[in-house]
Design goal:
By secondary structure, the protein is α+β, with helices and mostly antiparallel strands. It has a domain at about 1-70: Alpha-Beta Plaits, CATH 3.30.70. It is about 25% helix and about 20% strand. The strands form two sheets. A three-stranded antiparallel beta sheet has the order 1-2-3, with helices on one face. The chain has a two-stranded antiparallel ribbon with strand order 4-5. Helix 1 crosses helix 2. The longest helix is centred in the N-terminal third of the chain and has 15 residues, at about 25-40. The protein is extended. The protein starts with a strand and ends in a 32-residue tail after the last strand.
Length: about 120
């Protein structure tokens, strides 16, 4: 089994998807395959993101396995702190229940507090 990853986004906010294939592709061949699909679907993709849509096409057309949350059997939260170790709930669609209110949250934080106003 061979594993591949697609990234989407900029330096601050990004997402990625994992794919698996029994066939091995060189990085250049995988790029060519992905670019061909991207060009074809970039203006009308079916999933939430471009990379999820490309992954779905790779699964349909080239027998890749799109390793999405929908395929999860179990999800665990793991921490050094004992009470923070637990089985995470998976919703009916197979996704980890993360409350669904947002997909990505970007916050520009200044840990020094220099940007705070002193009133």
């Amino acid at each position: 089994m061979h594993f591949y990853e697609l990234h989407e986004g900029d330096g601050d906010v990004f997402s990625d998807v994992l794919l698996a294939s029994e066939d091995e592709y060189s990085a250049e061949d995988f790029l060519d395959l992905v670019q061909g699909i991207r060009r074809r679907i970039q203006d009308h993709f079916e999933q939430d993101t471009l990379i999820e849509s490309i992954a779905a096409e790779l699964e349909r057309e080239h027998d890749f396995i799109f390793i999405s949350d929908d395929r999860l059997t179990a999800a665990l939260n793991v921490s050094r702190i004992e009470e923070d170790n637990f089985i995470a709930e998976i919703d009916e669609g197979g996704s980890i229940d993360r409350d669904g209110s947002f997909r990505t949250l970007y916050a520009d934080l200044d840990p020094t507090g220099a940007g705070e106003s002193q009133n």
